[in-house]
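Progress against Task 2.4 (sequence-to-structure conversion) is shown through the following example record, which the project officer requested during the mid-term review.
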Amino acid sequence: MKRMTVGQVADFLKGIRQGATFIGFTSESEPKMRKTNNPYFGKVVKVNTHNAKVNCDYEAGVNRRLDKEGKEPDFVAKGNWHAPLMIDDKYTPLAYKVSDPDELYLRYFPEKSGTPVFVDKETGELVDKAKLAPFMPAPSTYENQGLDSPNEIKVMKLSNIRRISIAGEDIEVIG
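Structure tokens generated for the chain above:
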């Protein structure tokens, strides 16, 4: 297994532009939670494994599925806080923050994710998701797509990725 810094991983991913590509990765991130009256805020980390596709055209993917469902393929993606990083008019696995183009994210289309575990940062003990649920937002429904089965797109801050497998490489992210 190779070991790379976040910057080295970003450079490596910029070179992957061959079309839809499968990826596996493990993430460790702050769970999205409400701050107000939340005894768990800032004290828990979410760890998860993901299998996904990268380098995909989101808008074209939604329109292909609309067509398969016998609906008018007229979806137009709205602007977002992030945008795909294109090099030579080709998708890379990366997205950037529109307000700060130097802030990079892995842009992925979930295929299958493991069940996340929540870990107390101080003790290392598992925290039951049921205790956190009242403080967590409802997940996006993607209803603006008009699909029976939505085409999900997600982003993960590169610094939250611990391991990544793509293009025949297994990489441990360090630093």
